[in-house]
Amino acid sequence: MIVVFGSINVDVVARVQRLPQAGETLAGRSFSMLPGGKGANQALAARRAGGDVTLFGCVARDEAMCSIALRTLVRDGVDLTGIRKVDAAPGVALIHVDDRGENCITVVAGANAHARAAQIPDAMLSAGTTVLMQLEVPVDEIAALARRASGRGARVILNAAPAATLSAPLLDDIDVLVVNELEAKVLAGSADVDVRATCCRLASPSRSVVATLGSAGALCVHRGATRTQRAPPIDVVDTVGAGDAFTAALAVALDRGDAFESAIRQAVAAGSLACGVAGAQDSMPTREAIDGLAASLDG
Fold first, then answer.
1. Is the confidence at residue 183, as pLDDT, over 80?
2. What is the C-alpha separation between 265 and 62, in angstroms, rounded?
3. What is the pLDDT of residue 299?
4. What average pLDDT does the chain have?
5. Domain segments of the chain: what residues?
6. Lower Cβ count inside 10 Å, N or C end of the chain?
């Protein structure tokens, strides 16, 4: 079982020829409002990858925005009984996507700032549970849930995004840490060390570290061994949601008992497939698609 504790947003997306510079106003090519938020994205991606998923978080009472934020989750059968409605502004992400598929994102927490670890009952935290979290809800609540889940034998996966420094006690409760290159360097406190050395620094005997490397695939440190997993060639439409697809597929594979090496292949396949479809939630691949691409990958 996958328990996701995280953000639920509306993505306000503008497509532009190139990303704006500081102080610059650009004419956009299109505008859309789509369901998003790293928690919701990963819950949906985990469900499509074959997981039994319950999402915990908060949304605003604004019915129109709430309907946008939850519509894909409802359609795909994610368990939403853990979501609370609160008196707050909706969580939103303001996203520019350019013609190369690159993006820049500003996140406004809104209702997500009210998410609490206490929403998840102890009965859902056991050795048969994988708890999946990100950093778009309060970090104190993430730490509280990680402590409870770890103490009760659940597997704890943290996608440390957006980039932030984290306390040693929180990291001690994490079984699998997922980062990109920037996030790894922020956590390690050094911009001058290469990603391999950074991941080795962040790993421990009880904590595996996985770094996404974009078109180069992924690097992982697991039980003292370091390896890379190449990515397949992909015609990139946009990279929005690729990290969420990667992290969710990794969580689902580990939750069903796959070996770590196999789980990394599944994750790289999912992240790659997500780059080939526009948008965040629309790009999340199915298990069949992930399995098919993962079977073609070697190290």
1. yes
2. 40
3. 60
4. 94
5. 2-294
6. C
Q: Tell whether the model's pLDDT for residue 238 goes beyond 90.
A: no
pLDDT band at 278 (very low <50, low <70, confident <90, very high): confident
Residue 162, preceding peptide bond in cis (omega within 30° of 0): yes
Q: Is the pLDDT of residue 193 over 80?
A: no
17 φ, ψ (degrees, to nearest 5): -65, -40
Q: Which of 105, 117, 98, 104 is nearest to 9 (CA)?
A: 105
- Name the amino acid, one letter, at 250: L
What class does CATH assign to 2-294? alpha beta
In the set 79, 173, 175, 244, the catalytic residue is: 244
pLDDT (tens digit per residue) in 38-84: 999 999 999 999 999 999 999 999 999 999 999 999 999 999 999 99
Q: In terms of Cα–Cα distance, which of 225, 210, 216 is closest to 179?
A: 210
Q: Is 192 a catalytic residue?
A: no
- For the entire predicted model, the pTM comes to 0.93
Task: For the chain, state the CA radius of gyration.
Answer: 18
Q: Give the chain as a 3 state SS string.
A: CEEEECCCEEEEEEECCCCCCCCCCCCCCEEEEEEECHHHHHHHHHHHCCCCEEEEEEEECCHHHHHHHHHHHHHHCCEEEEEEEECCCCCEEEEEECCCCCEEEEEECHHHHHCCHHHCCHHHCCCCCEEEECCCCCHHHHHHHHHHHHHCCCEEEEECCCCCCCCHHHHHCCCEEEEEHHHHHHHHCCCCCCHHHHHHHHCECCEEEEEECHHHCEEEEECCEEEEECCCCCCCCCCCCHHHHHHHHHHHHHHCCCCHHHHHHHHHHHHHHHCCCCCCHHHCCCHHHHHHHHCCCCC
